[in-house]
Design goal:
This protein has eleven helices and twelve strands. The chain is of the alpha/beta class. The relative contact order is 0.14.
Length: 330
């Protein structure tokens, strides 16, 4: 029997990739978008999905959108690394998630899949990859985005206690084709354009968007209620990542390691510099502080229980770069 599915955050990088895969099935796919949303990322599949206007911060719009819906993929959220949008981060990531969960329960939705973040899991302070069982330790960095993603999972746990069937996925740093807003892809663009002459001393877990979208769909079917699944791939230092990007794009190698203490001094100097556009937007202190740590993750649980596939980080970087290059976006 065909199912009725609603996707929030459908115009985002992960959300749009997910919608494209769901649109290939026989299920009825609804996408929740705001009136002013940019639908560019979904151009190819708009004829196969139904647009529903609403906003996760507006509970009444969710009640209307969820009528008769069986499954909800909640991938809407605000990703912002800084401290200038704290109230908005809380409103969208925490209160918005609470609204989706409560409206889903009221509408009799069968299951909700919550797309969280690895910042809601933790940091590998000793470089040893952490798994789903780690106690959240991101508070030591004081990043409001991470705090709100953590609190959104607390909301999910509350909803599960009250009887709603929910599963959580925690994608790592997602690269690949279709990243029109240059989320993770910003580092490719900036190394290519020689705007990043240095690299931070930490490391990240890289995963391809295609793998993430496929595994999210599997998690909806096979994930255990109330459980979280890290969707990651290869753990690489920023030095390795920068070297790979240089190799694939043909850009000069990034040679200078930049410790966090030195970055703070450099930033003070750059703030007085007239032509700021010559340095990457990635160089803000919140982002650089996170990048000075190791966000290394163990995705064995998703591999074991959700049959998640593995690709090298080089594969994902190449996919993203070629997609940008073919569209003259670099």
């Amino acid at each position: 029997m065909n199912k009725k599915i609603l996707v929030t955050g459908a115009t985002g990088f992960i959300g749009s990739s997910l919608v494209k895969k769901l649109a290939l099935t026989d299920d009825e796919v609804l996408i929740l978008v705001r009136k002013n949303s940019d639908l560019t990322s979904l151009t190819d599949v708009l004829h196969k999905v139904k647009i529903v206007y609403g906003d996760i911060t507006d509970r009444a719009s969710l009640d209307r959108a969820l009528q008769g819906v069986n499954f909800v993929y909640h991938s809407a959220g605000l990703t912002y690394m800084g401290d200038k949008k704290n109230a908005l981060l809380y409103r969208i990531n925490v209160e918005g998630t609470r609204n989706v969960l409560q409206a889903s329960a009221a509408a009799g939705v069968t299951r909700v899949l919550h797309v969280s973040s690895i910042t809601a899991v933790g940091i590998a302070f000793d470089k040893k990859p952490v798994d789903e069982s780690v106690i959240w330790n991101f508070h030591q960095i004081d990043l409001e985005y991470a705090r709100t993603k953590h609190l959104s999972e607390v909301e999910v746990a509350e909803a599960v206690k009250k009887g709603l069937d929910c599963v959580i996925v925690n994608p790592a740093f997602v690269f690949g084709a279709g990243d029109i807003n240059f989320n993770a892809g910003r580092i490719i663009k900036d190394i290519y354009n020689r705007k990043l002459p240095f690299y931070p001393l930490g490391g990240i877990c890289v995963v391809d968007v295609e793998i993430v979208a496929d595994t999210i769909i599997t998690a909806m079917k096979k994930g255990k209620t109330g459980e979280r699944y890290i969707l990651g791939g290869e753990n690489v230092s920023y030095k390795q990542l920068a070297d790979t990007i240089s190799k694939i794009t043909g850009a000069p190698k990034v040679h200078f390691p930049l410790p966090f203490w030195m970055a703070k001094i450099l930033k003070l100097g750059l703030d007085l510099y007239k032509n700021k556009n010559r340095i990457s937007k990635l160089f803000n202190m919140s982002m650089f502080r996170v990048a000075s740590h190791f966000l290394y993750f163990d995705s064995a649980k998703a591999t074991r229980e959700l049959n998640m596939q593995y690709q090298s980080h080089e594969h994902s970087i190449r996919n993203a770069y070629e997609w940008y290059r073919d569209r003259n976006m670099l």
